[in-house]
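Summary of Year 1 activities. Much of the first year was spent building the evaluation harness for sequence design. The harness presents a backbone, in tokenized form, and records the residue chosen at every position. We chose the following record to illustrate the format because it has been used consistently in internal testing since the harness was completed.
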């Protein structure tokens, strides 16, 4: 279902596209991340673990940018991961003002266990599109994101 708004053709096309983009995103996100419940992880917690796994220790501000969360929200996410023993906060030796977030041994073991299945789920969910369609979608999403980021 598209929009029922009776505006200009430009508005109707834009609203229809946005509705379809939003619904597709929500559907894919729910399918891809359903397995996280089995590990008592939120999408944000998984995002932190995945970023640290692939990129190494990071400062909270860097993590917030990487997983597209506010620093206030990220503080709570990190607090909960620390409580579970999955990440640590450590002051840098070279600059005591800076704190790095890093995986613990348990955190690394968990993400190493979860990530292959997660990647397979992404591939399965996105597999309804051909490889060329996935590439085209990625290009269009990048354009939409970058052009609008420049307007902020």
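For this record, the design step produced the sequence shown next.
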């Amino acid at each position: 279902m598209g929009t029922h708004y009776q505006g200009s053709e430009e508005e109707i096309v834009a609203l229809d596209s946005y509705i379809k983009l939003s619904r597709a995103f929500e559907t894919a996100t729910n399918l891809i991340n359903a397995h996280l419940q089995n590990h008592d992880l939120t999408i944000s917690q998984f995002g932190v673990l995945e970023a640290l796994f692939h990129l190494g220790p990071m400062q909270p501000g860097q993590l917030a940018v990487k997983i597209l969360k506010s620093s206030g929200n990220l503080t709570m996410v990190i607090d909960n991961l620390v409580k579970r023993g999955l990440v640590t906060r450590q002051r840098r030796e070279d600059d005591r003002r800076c704190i790095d977030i890093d995986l613990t041994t348990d955190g690394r073991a968990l993400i190493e266990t979860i990530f292959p299945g997660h990647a397979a789920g992404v591939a399965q969910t996105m597999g309804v599109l051909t490889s060329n369609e996935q590439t085209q979608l990625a290009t269009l999403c990048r354009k939409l994101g970058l052009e609008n980021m420049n307007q902020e």
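Residues 9-149 form a domain with the Arc Repressor Mutant, subunit A fold (CATH 1.10.10.10). Quantitative recovery figures across the full test set are reported in Table 2.
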